[in-house]
């Protein structure tokens, strides 16, 4: 039975029979999906110390308890309404925001919500084997926290589909549980969500870079004229911040440990001999997930993006910090690659909205890399991590089909084939990572050799707290 007690919410679920009926049908399928495609080996006998959102105020949001994963209380929350909120950009600037979906934008809005929704279960599927290779109980718990929140983000999108899109919405909600990451016949919609994540270096890079795309996309959807979409995504952003924390501090802790091991190995020595992760390997994984996540912003020139903006469906990140919100006559100077050479052209700004958001994203990523490099600097090493050029390893947009090195220098296909594993993980790199992660660490307070402990534990608890326990 669907009840407001089992499903924490601030959308008046107990008074909404239509939504209750839709969820009654969908929820058992969701639980089945979670059991089949969620964390493998941690469904029945483990309890995890997780945070459950039980309301949107700060106290209700930070409610911690031990739960068995399939019994997690996935809730439905909208951020508080903004009084007299008006459309903030595009052709309908200044008009009241919409509480219902306008018929003429129904397809576009459904598509945006389905695309967003599809990424959430996809990421849980991608990460489902990581628990069996975890570097510590602290990290295991963080993985599951991220997983249950991605599950909740799926609920958030399903709430919108069920509430505002009738029959088609219910069908789309079912299909969100039917597509599968990496499945040849029914893959997830966006490419980065079909890539395997079977080691923790990939997991941390994913939560650093791909969750940051989540942040930029959610920021732009939170500007939407469809008020329920705006309010839903605003609340999701608060959870996204923790996922990026997991990624950024995860890599920071690996770097910390790598620096210690490099010193032990005698500065120029090979840290792999000491079971650590060398900086070139870290850089390759950074290159991989940054470039895959750049692709998630769509093509540089996009009539879809122009129409989303014109119709007020999807704005720019922090729209209110821009001077002008109609953006009809301004241009974006964009670099094209023609006949092997860069050529700058002026593109109507509305058509360049994907690139505008990508600019914001690249800046946010660059700031994170600066923070990582401080660790190398503090340890006295001259190596630095860096973001590759935007043209490097692109599968979507105008650079797809061409080859560039991380400095943006064009390469022939032969040069690329010869050199790509200098910049992207090779099979040997993957095997090495799996070899040092083969034995999971389940002892409280212990950490795998390749990663330093965190500065502090969760919710002010000690680092050696038993964040995941077998059932008592
Ligand atoms: N892979 O005009 P274009 C997150 C398709 S992450 C495959 O360039 P448009 C999370 C596109 O659909 C955030 N296909 O792009 C993170 C279109 O197809 P059609 C997820 C792609 O329409 C971690 C064609 O190419 N949120 O939350 O502006 C863990 C040309 O389209 C890709 C969203 O994405 C790709 N990478 O689309 C968990 C927000 N890129 O029409 C969660 C919702 C484009 O020819 N989505 N295509 O069939 C959107 O805002 C937009 O759909 C896109 C760009 C940003 C994806």
Plain-language structure description:
- This protein is mainly α and 472 residues long.
- 46% of the residues lie in helices and 7% in strands.
- The protein has twelve helices and seven strands.
- The strands form three sheets. The chain has a three-stranded antiparallel β-sheet.
- Strand 5 and strand 6 form a beta hairpin.
- Helix 1 packs antiparallel against helix 4, helix 4 runs antiparallel to helix 5 and helix 4 runs antiparallel to helix 7.
- The chain is globular.
- The mean pLDDT is 95.
- Bound molecules: benzoyl coenzyme A.
- Benzoyl coenzyme A binds next to helix 3, helix 6 and helix 9.
Characteristic key phrases:
472 residues, mainly alpha, 3-stranded antiparallel beta sheet, 7 strands, 7% strand, binds benzoyl coenzyme A
